[in-house]
Design goal:
heterodimer; A: alpha+beta; Ubiquitin-like (UB roll); Fumarate Reductase Iron-sulfur Protein, Chain B, domain 2; 3 domains; 5-stranded mixed beta sheet; 17 helices; disordered N terminus; B: alpha/beta; FAD/NAD(P)-binding domain; Flavocytochrome C3, Chain A, domain 1; Methane Monooxygenase Hydroxylase, Chain G, domain 1; 5-stranded parallel beta sheet; 16 helices; binds flavin-adenine dinucleotide; binds iron/sulfur cluster; binds FE2/S2 (inorganic) cluster
Chain lengths: ~325, ~575
Amino acid sequence: METQSIQNNLEQREVLVKVKRYSKERGEYWQEYKLNVDRFTQMTEVLRKIKTEQDPTLAYRASCHMAVCGSCSMKINGEPRLACKTLALDIVKKYNSNVITLEPMDFFPVEKDLVVNLDDFYGRMFKVKPRLYPPKEFMEGTAEPRLRPEDQKELWKFAQCIWCGLCVSSCPAVKIDPEFLGPAAHAKGYRFLADPRDSIYEERLKILVDSSWRCTYCYQCFNVCPRDVEPVTTIKKTRSHTKFLKDKGEVARTGEKHVKAIFDSIKETGKLEEAKVYLTTYGLATAIRDMLYTMRNGKVGFAMIKEKKINELDQVRKLMGE
Amino acid sequence: MDKLVYDAIVLGGGLAGLMSAHEIASAGFRVAVISKVFPTRSHSSSAEGGIAAYVKGNSDPNDDPNYMTYDTVKGGDYLVDQDAAELLSIKSGDIVEIMERWGTLFNRQPDGRVALRYFGGQTYPRTRFVGDKTGMALLHTLFERVSGLSVDFYNEWFALDLVTDERRVVGAVAMEMKSMEPYLFLGKAVILATGGMGMLYAHTTNAYINTGDGYAMALRAGAALKDPEFVQFHPTALYPSDILISEAARGEGGILRNNKGERFMARYAPKKLDLAPRDIASRSIMIEIREGRGFPGNYVGLDLTHLGESYIKERLALAYEAAMNFAGVDATKEYIPVRPAQHYYMGGVDVDITGKNGDLQGLFAAGEAACVSVHGANRLGSNSLLETLVFGRETGQAVVSYLKRAEGSSSTDIQKEAEKIVNDAYSFVKSETGVHFGEILNKMRNVMWEDVGIFRNEDLLKTALSEVEKLRAQVKNMYVTDKSKVYNTEFFNALELRNMMDLAVVIAKAALTRTESRGAHYRTDYPERDDKNWLKHTIAYLKADKVEIGFKPVTLTKYQPEARVY
Ligand SMILES: Cc1cc2nc3c(=O)[nH]c(=O)nc-3n(C[C@H](O)[C@H](O)[C@H](O)COP(=O)(O)OP(=O)(O)OC[C@H]3O[C@@H](n4cnc5c(N)ncnc54)[C@H](O)[C@@H]3O)c2cc1C
Ligand code: SF4
Ligand code: SF4
Ligand code: FES
């Protein structure tokens, strides 16, 4: 019976791929390609077929075809995705249409077709000193840099960033705040901040803390990351290190006030009224735009959770030391 | 053409290239790393299973570097240079400890020491790993480390060719992909660390960028390749994307089935069944497909369904996820569609155990681009990541001592030679008609797959050789429709094809020459290993369109050839 299902589902289906192209000479324009795909066809394969069989002038990046190199980031039907990790027919099914649109990632300047300039992204990554600075004894081999298995697990989650840039391309805070390092750099920075074997904790705090208060907690980076790195979690965790920072800047101070608002919200309802706190802090316009992103992503249920007072409010207040 | 002057130039930003650059920069020399992709996009990032190493105080108490050498020599069907395998084993512990100190998050034992797992062909478990993304973890660690040194990175720069002066390498010409500007990189030493060549085959687990550029550059500069006929195939690559489904899937009880639902391995390896060695399993699958018992699309099924959902999701998480993400197949309910695919290239630029090539002074090679040779006729799993780092380091150090005594500039007109290289490359772009790279590429990949693949014999190889020679001639009439001066990737694809064709003729010719079966090289007309005539390395040159084949003895130290049975 399993045999049957593979056989029956191998039929080809024609899709219409619309690519947003760009070149200095021609500017921006859309181009369409028709080709057959089956249930297994990855979008990188769609691109490869177009390039070798129909239009060799189309430019895009791809390398590993297995979601580990981070080359093939782009927007597919408006969603920030890795092309190799996206099956053509899944998109057809999801949008109930055999038209698939491909566009370059947002935020980064387009060089040609789907190839964007990532200098800004790399600059952010290098700002956080993305490497371990172990103490001398480790480097000289006089002490053994053992790591507890649970630390390895925690750090590895955040170390799995493949520098694909998708989170940064879709982060609203990056677009409006030049001082904000952005989600991927925060994940990278935190991976080393939290490593017990690192020796430049103070310096890292100085780089990371102020910036961590500039995130809007919209969870867009969480939604788009193809490796489940959860940059926003690292930002939360970095914020909790603010207390160790010697000279706090303006942002960190406001941030701490913001935390106080959250504290009050919990005292009031027993819950974090994320939406309300967010709205008062960042204004209605930003909130609506982010909500649109979230809706397109199909994660709207996640953002629309209604905050109701919980029943055990007394106990919560007790826990909070009332 | 503008010049950029360095002490050493490293072509390739994968594990091997980065490690050698680290050594050269740490010794105070000026080094440029040129890579056609941002370094973390290199193929090294795809490696899954792990890196083999004997670490004193953190290995199986019975293990020792001699066992590791022996396993490597036997796994390579005795074509391994045993001094190289010894060095690999002895230095393996250092390398893993270095990478750990630099921050690689190896999986741990409960007491905090690095964890170990078994890999095929190991007498004792000695593979260290980071989940199922060992290559990515190592590559990021090393890139981040080297990016903190004073190394100049030229990312998304395409190296066209080596620049030589009589018997010496004096640099390379590379082009910035963004601006399409060529530059002459001058350096006393050049290291080829350009990785493998999977794209020569219609089916490969390799990245799209693995087009064998380094092998072709070496050949065109007059350097030899060693053992070019040895191409490793892995039996279970996911259909159709050819993503690797690890051997673990069969180790845990997965069964290979044909379109009738038969457990066909019972016919080919009645005792070992689905756990037969890689080459046997690959050949069996191919026979099933060729005899019409594959599924439409040409693959067989890897059946895990009898293992039960919870067991699959727990023990074979990666195979389950890969099938789901990349083929849309739920392995708890359906067969995983698999077929063999090219996986690794044992052949490479002929170098000694310091990474030095004997044909051209100043030329070095490391990693999959090189043939040291530690893998012989068949690479053991998890030995290749180890090789990139150990020999990347050895090579870097050899370059440092070479730089200390190397002489300065040469007499011939380097600039002229560089210009010729660029003109040759541009000849495609200038012509207005001819064949297109896509046509030749697809034909070549099919010929290599069908006739220079898992099964070889004289007839197939002769056909293949004349086919690839014809296709190679057509490359001269190739044209590029895109005339743009920004990321003209069509132009680079055409150059890659030129490189693949140079390598293809060499592989086909060497495979035709070796009339025995050894490791991954299987000749149906000569099914036995023949130590009397063939216990020797093939040495191949490409001279004026002719492949010239010679031989070199295999270095034996402690281990005399014996039958390779497991
Ligand atoms: C799916 C898969 C899984 C694997 N798993 C394992 C494993 O578990 N354990 C193991 O030991 N081995 C494994 N291997 C093998 C191993 O990953 C590779 O052999 C190794 O990573 C090669 O590293 P490298 O540094 O030699 O080359 P690569 O990492 O391939 O780097 C090549 C570099 O050269 C550059 N380059 C190439 N051509 C040019 C040019 N013309 N101009 C400029 N730059 C150029 C590229 O940009 C790249 O930076 C696996 C291989 C595959 C395919
Ligand atoms: S949660 Fe913060 S870092 Fe993530 S996308 Fe939103 S603003 Fe950016
Ligand atoms: S955090 Fe995730 S989305 Fe962002 S760059 Fe890294 S892998 Fe990509
Ligand atoms: S091609 Fe490597 S992540 Fe898609």
